[in-house]
Design a protein that fits this description.
By secondary structure, the chain is of the alpha+beta class. The chain contains 9 helices and 19 strands. The chain folds into 2 domains: 190 residues, OB fold (Dihydrolipoamide Acetyltransferase, E2P) (Beta Barrel); 214 residues, Chloramphenicol Acetyltransferase (2-Layer Sandwich).
Length: 438
């Protein structure tokens, strides 16, 4: 029997995926649950496993190409005898309908297949036999000169992951990301990509065009940029309004200086302050639905992060109100590191119930943020600057202040709700910042 490997839906918004690399080459034996291909979804690179045991008969979509979700990208034959039949099936499916009585040549497929074999072997670093290795583990093993044949895999189905390679050289890595439940409709299922090893990884260069961009040139959007476009267009359908507020940050800045050496960032402090304030305002992290207001059970603060190769992603601090500031900061650093190496799982960037965009770190005074689809509000935070202000006793003084602007869905949130939230956030930051460490 011949089975199709489909382009899986790795997220709810994904409409197409890009083949990063084929881990298996045509003719290779495949075990059920073994990684076959690495696919780039909207915002992450993920391994895709086979639901079937057999042989990779032919690759339909080459590495570097894209395919719509649900489209066949390869064929798996259950027996070696069926491989040639699968190739013929792929060739006949891809051959264009003849425009004249002369039939199309029957031998149009072998050359592309041969090229694909070479590309797949190169991209998989020679993966063969029953050795199941994640792409990151293979790359790490090459860097550290570790013989993969001597390792015992700790991943699913005995798969060798990055942690196994690091353990072989006596180093400790980050915990692996939990696997995502596969979608039952696909013939290939995404599995969790192993977490990157920060101590071993070399600085990742910023992707750039091979040649300088020239005037008049059209540069295609990346997969991530296309995802951002779709989200922004969807946001335009929502009636939003904006509310600004000035917050004095002297106490917050003082606290930050006290705990900065412990790995706490200002973004983490702001996320914590927002999460604590949201506990009093459940409407601010609710969402509009056709049936009414969807009140969310968790305060999941998403924070916008610019990607080096264009676009942005919003890693999510799950239950941010329940984490202490030090755990939250460590979690945030891990999320950012894995976001920039495209190793986040869908649940780690698509489950936010409130979003924070902090352009203040770049010196921006004030701006309005676009509301993410499926959320009720997003807070734009500007930079803190010393300002001359009138004090309560009628004198002048210097205070450090920042401008924040809330963008809200006016179908469920009204001006009074937004104002009350911003007042409580300002009160926490201005008079009770120390409580953020409790």
């Amino acid at each position: 029997m011949i089975h199709e490997v489909f382009m899986p839906a790795l997220s709810s918004t994904m409409t197409e995926g890009k083949i990063v690399s084929w881990v298996k080459a045509p003719g290779d034996k495949i075990e059920k649950g073994e990684t076959v291909v690495v696919v780039e979804s909207d915002k992450a690179d993920m391994d895709v496993e086979s639901f079937y045991e057999g042989y990779l008969a032919t690759i339909i979509v080459d590495a570097g190409s894209t395919a719509p979700v649900g489209e066949a990208i390869a064929l798996i034959a259950e027996t070696e005898a069926e491989i040639e039949t699968a190739k013929q099936k792929a060739a006949s499916a891809s051959a264009p309908a003849p425009a004249a009585p002369t039939p199309a040549p029957a031998t149009t497929e072998p050359e592309p297949v041969a090229a694909t074999v070479e590309e797949a072997i190169a991209s998989s670093n020679g993966s063969s036999g029953r050795l199941v290795v994640s792409p990151r583990a293979r790359k790490l093993a090459k860097e550290l000169k570790v013989d993969l044949a001597t390792l015992k895999g700790s991943g699913p189905h005995g798969r060798i992951v990055a942690e196994d390679v690091e353990a072989a050289v006596g180093r400790v890595s980050e915990p692996a990301t939990p696997a995502v439940t596969p979608a039952p409709a696909a013939v290939a299922a995404p599995v969790a990509a192993s977490a990157p090893a920060p101590a071993a990884a070399t600085p990742k260069p910023t992707p750039a065009p091979a040649a300088p961009v020239t005037p008049g040139q059209v540069v295609p959007l990346t997969t991530l940029q296309n995802a951002v476009v779709r989200n922004m267009v969807a946001s335009l359908e929502v009636p939003t309004f904006h509310v600004g507020y000035t917050i004095t940050t002297d106490n917050l800045d003082k606290l930050y200086k006290q705990i900065k050496s412990k790995g706490v960032t200002m973004t983490a402090l702001l996320a914590k302050a927002i999460a604590v304030t949201l506990k009093k305002h459940p409407l601010l992290y609710a969402a509009y639905t056709d049936q009414g207001i969807q009140y969310n059970s968790g305060i999941n603060v998403a924070v916008a992060v610019a990607m080096d190769d264009g676009g942005l992603i919003t890693p999510v601090l799950q239950a941010a109100d329940q984490m202490d500031i030090y755990t939250l900061s460590r979690t945030w650093k891990d999320l950012v590191d894995r976001a920039r190496s495209k190793q986040l799982q869908p649940a780690e960037y698509s489950t936010g119930t409130f979003t924070l965009s902090n352009l203040g770190m770049f010196g921006v005074d004030r701006f309005d943020a676009i509301l993410p689809p499926g959320q009720g509000a997003i807070l734009a935070i500007g930079t803190s600057r010393p300002q001359v202000v009138a004090t309560a006793d009628g004198l002048f003084g210097v205070r450090t202040q920042m401008q924040v602007n809330l963008t809200a869905d006016h179908r469920i949130i009204y001006g009074a709700h937004a104002a009350a939230f911003l007042q409580d956030l300002a009160k926490l930051i201005e008079t009770d910042a120390q409580s953020l460490t409790l």
